[in-house]
Specification:
The chain is of the alpha/beta class and 469 residues long. The chain is built from 15 helices and 21 strands. The structure holds guanosine-5'-triphosphate, magnesium ion and sodium ion (NA).
């Protein structure tokens, strides 16, 4: 058998942190792209996956003269949003990764979603490295006062961090050290030991901090090398390639010319064009056949529109766009399964629907309760969890994922005859179709008329409420 060290898959690395700490910019810096400036409001709203082949990592880290050879074929990096409303995406991203980068803005220190991300990583025992980003900002602020002293700064573009540090003035170094000490203290308050990575003698016990700049690239070589070295040193077993397909649906998207597609992360195994697959769907398991396996060009983003490379087969780990028929009701955040020649179709269908089952179990059996609708399974689960808490305690009679359609409003309206106050759709992060709005409006008016007839204005409840959360 192949020695496992020679048969490693690419580690999957998730970038997490508070909004605007520079996560996407760091990715841009590594791959030489400009994803961040193309984002609406500069805010990341979906998970992205980018593949860095080993030769690119070798090139970017050569100044560090690391003699340790790269044993992994590359690195699959997953970008997540930092905005507070995307807890579900952070959770999905972090559940997939082998290692993570926690990005902290040196000017802001630990922020609410830094701590949320930290807790997600700890919950899953995921190793991470802290990128203390925007280090150039410190220098830039100072540069207003000490322009001459920072004369050499420009020459450090993409340089290893120690080399950069040595070139900084005493003032800049003092400012940096003061901020670093504050941030190490903040981590301590969260129960974590952290230390600058080149001073860290006990990796594994103490988390490493790498100062970086996503604008000028300082520290990026260190970050890449540490990520790869650390994962291939401590995660050999986890990273040993195996044939069993392990694959998660990240997003369900309509792409012009391709219809409804799914973006997936293939964690292990191989996918082939023509494979029969099963994914979890709103109306039950979706059995379909892979029409095309697409990836962006290496070092390019899966999220960004552009030309795709077609593949006959793809080996893990990789971010892939899959086109196939019948994916319209696929649910993001669930598993993808391949049907092998020996497999029993019904068994796999059942396994594929497991994710959905736990959610279905939360529905009130009495049939009385509100309807809940969300964009993804993850956010739906979070909402159901919230409604179940003793302080809230609202029963749920129906759930749905995706836009609110007319049929959803009609379903919720049924409650008008049972319990008026439950004739409600709680909608989170979903579109409401014009037809659905119209239908809701009609039901609302009809009910008001009904109330009027009874002349019991005091009792008038507002039925069939559509609450956009
Ligand atoms: P979300 O995905 O929305 O959570 O944000 P993000 O963490 O991906 O941050 P993003 O890459 O969108 O960067 C936010 C802002 O910070 C942008 O204006 C960047 O140009 C700026 N920025 C990012 N990295 C650096 C850095 O190293 N130095 C400086 N000076 N600015 C940076
Ligand atoms: Mg971003
Ligand atoms: Na941003």
């Amino acid at each position: 058998p192949e020695k496992s060290e020679d048969n490693l898959r690419s580690p999957i690395c998730c970038i997490m942190g508070h909004v605007d700490t520079g996560k996407t910019k760091l990715l841009d810096c590594i791959q030489g792209t400009n994803v961040q400036e193309g984002e609406a409001g500069g805010i990341t709203q979906q998970i992205g996956a980018t593949y860095f082949p080993a030769e690119n990592i070798r090139e970017r880290t050569k100044e560090l003269k690391a003699d340790a050879k790269l044993k992994v074929p590359g690195l699959l990096v997953i970008d997540t949003p930092g905005h507070e409303s995307f807890t579900n995406l952070r959770s999905r991203g972090s559940s997939l990764c082998d290692i993570a980068i926690l990005v902290v803005d040196i000017m802001h220190g630990l922020e609410p979603q830094t701590i949320e991300s930290l807790n997600l990583l700890r919950m899953r025992n995921t190793e991470f490295i802290v990128a203390l980003n925007k280090c150039n900002s410190v220098v830039l602020i100072f540069s207003n006062f000490h322009l001459d002293r920072l004369y050499g700064w420009k020459n450090s573009r993409n340089a290893p961090i120690l080399k950069t540090m040595k070139q900084q003035s005493k003032d800049v170094q003092n400012e940096f050290n003061m901020r670093l000490t504050q941030i190490i203290t903040q981590f301590k308050e969260q129960g974590l030991n952290t230390e600058l990575y080149y001073k860290n003698r006990e990796m594994g016990e103490t988390y490493s901090i790498i100062p970086t700049s996503a604008i000028s690239g300082e520290g990026v070589p260190d970050l890449l090398l540490l990520l790869v070295q650390w994962s291939q040193k401590t995660m050999v077993e986890k990273l040993t390639y195996n044939n069993e397909v392990q694959c998660t649906v990240l997003e369900v998207k309509v792409v012009e010319g391709h219809g409804t597609t799914i973006d997936v992360v293939l964690v292990n195994g191989v996918l082939h064009e023509g494979d029969q697959i099963i994914v979890c769907g709103m109306q039950g398991p979706i059995v379909t056949t892979i029409r095309a396996l697409l990836t962006p060009h290496p070092m390019k983003e899966l999220r960004v529109k552009g030309t795709y490379l077609h593949h006959k087969q793809i080996k893990a780990a990789q971010g892939i766009k899959i086109t196939a028929q019948g994916l319209e009701h696929a649910i993001a955040g669930t598993g993808l399964y391949v049907v092998g020649p020996q497999d029993d179709l019904d068994d796999i269908k059942e396994v594929a629907m497991e994710d959905m089952k736990s959610v279905m179990n939360r529905i009130d059996k009495s049939g009385e309760g509100v309807c809940v609708q969300a964009s993804t399974l993850g956010s739906l689960e979070a909402l159901l969890e919230f409604l179940k808490t003793p302080e809230v305690n609202i029963p749920v009679s129906g759930i749905s994922i995706g836009p609110v359609h007319k049929k959803d409003v009609m379903k919720a309206s049924v409650m008008l005859e049972k319990k008026k106050e439950f004739a409600t759709i709680l909608a989170f992060d979903v579109k409401v179709t014009p037809e659905a709005r119209m239908n809701w409006f009609k039901a609302y008016i009809d009910n008001l008329k009904e109330q009027k007839k009874k002349e019991s204005a005091d009792e008038a409840v507002f039925p069939c409420v559509l609450k956009i959360l």
